[in-house]
Design a protein that fits this description.
2 domains; single chain; about 15% strand; alpha/beta; seven-stranded mixed sheet; Aspartate Aminotransferase, domain 2; Aspartate Aminotransferase, domain 1; about 400 residues; 17 strands
Length: about 400
């Protein structure tokens, strides 16, 4: 298996044209990655051959579906270095973090408690904590970022000394793109007796992660950022955390017994998986992990790093273009252009086949602190190559010339 240009045939959407017959240059991978044929076939194959509800029947299709579903859980557990019972399937990182904020937070947060998050968080790891703190009467503290775009450890230490119930942070920001010192932050939280909650959606998209190496209590990730289907992801927690947290949804499958006025919960992971789960999504996610394993073996991390540097160098060479990152971004390059609105630039670049993201990228507090309302973001994956960076920079030049 090879990366870049030679990989594109395995991703059907990349063969299409957009605009006036332009080749699609997809650089919005931080929002979602494209899907390889292996994932598409896995999902369609499930519906064509084994579609049934899991855990609920003794017939052949139900048993096949259950085997596929639990096989996906086992594969993901191996992928992040945990026992499969510590993997809870959810719709994505957003739902996983909401589960923690509502179920754990509802039981453990009270008036005057302190929750620490960073100013660089995606709204998915900020708004749930805002909601939880309002319900509990707790205080939400936003941690600043340092000159390297990582958590300011001195500020974190000061806030931990004042007490904290939770430290919630991203393993890699979707705007600044700097990989965080996850294990160091989790160690500081653990020493202070705070729960560590890691948004791993961006980090897990293009590298192998190890929950125990990180030392976090819980992490959340999304399959659609890892070449998997939309609507599937996972919350990965320690047994201590998961067993001590109440369920957040009630219904079928998450119970051992139900009486007129109360019920007994099923053991983990079933306790958190009420109702009919996204079995096809889990099957597709399993296939995506197999593809990712091969791509990483081929050097996808270095490949993405090379394109990031190429894009950064190209943008820095252009007058009036300003990068948001102060440190070293990986896979994500966010910037703004003098006298040109990001939405206008994105629209014009799209006419040349280049798909980039324009807006606040679900990170409004960060943009406000940077003194801008919105920005452009180009993000790279294994099927991108140097020719994509060249087309991207050329399209940006022509869009600027048209506007200015």
């Amino acid at each position: 298996m090879a990366l870049g240009v030679s990989l594109r045939d395995r991703f059907p959407v990349l063969s299409r044209t957009v605009g006036d017959g332009k080749r699609l240059v997809y650089l919005d991978n931080a929002a979602t990655t494209q899907k390889p044929v292996e994932v598409i076939h896995a999902v369609s194959g499930f519906y064509q051959e084994s579609n049934a509800n899991v855990h609920r029947g003794l017939h052949t299709l139900s048993e096949e579906a259950t085997t596929l579903y639990e096989g996906a859980r086992k594969s993901l557990g191996f992928w992040v270095g945990v026992d499969e019972t510590e993997v809870i399937f959810v719709r994505g990182a957003t739902e996983g973090i909401n589960l923690v904020a509502q179920a754990w937070g509802g039981e453990n947060l009270g008036r005057g408690d302190r929750v620490l998050v960073t100013v660089g968080e995606h709204h998915s790891n900020l708004v749930p904590w805002q909601m939880a703190c309002k319900r509990a009467g707790a205080d939400l503290i936003l941690l600043p970022l340092g000159e390297d775009d990582l958590i300011d450890k001195e500020a974190l230490a000061r806030e931990l000394e004042r007490g904290a119930k939770v430290v919630a942070f991203t393993a890699q920001g979707n705007v600044l793109g700097a990989p965080e010192d996850v294990s160091g932050v989790c160690q500081m939280a653990r020493t202070a007796g705070a729960l560590s909650v890691v948004d791993a959606a961006q980090a897990a998209a293009h590298r192998r992660i190890d929950r125990d190496e990180w030392g976090c209590d819980v992490l959340a990730l999304s399959g659609h950022k890892m070449m998997g289907p939309m609507g599937i992801g996972a919350l990965v927690g320690t047994k201590t955390f998961l067993e001590g947290t109440p369920p957040w949804m009630g219904g079928g499958e998450m119970i051992l017994d139900v009486r007129d006025r109360d019920a007994d919960w099923a053991p983990i992971p079933a306790k958190f998986e009420a109702g009919t789960m996204n079995v096809a999504g889990a099957v597709g996610f399993h296939a995506a992990l197999d593809v990712m394993r091969a791509l990483l073996d081929e050097g996808m991390e270095d490949h993405i790093s090379g394109m990031t540097r190429l894009a950064v160098d190209g943008l820095k060479a252009r007058d009036g273009v300003h990068l948001l990152a102060k440190g070293e971004p990986h896979g994500v390059v966010s910037f703004w252009v003098e006298a040109a609105h990001p939405h206008d630039l994105s629209h014009l670049m799209d006419q040349e086949g280049v798909a980039v993201r324009a807006g606040h990228h679900c990170a409004k507090p960060l943009h406000r602190r940077l003194g801008i309302q919105s920005s452009l973001r180009a993000s790279f994956y294994g099927y991108n190559d140097e020719d994509d960076v060249e087309v991207f920079l050329g399209a940006l030049d022509r869009a600027r010339a048209y506007l200015l």
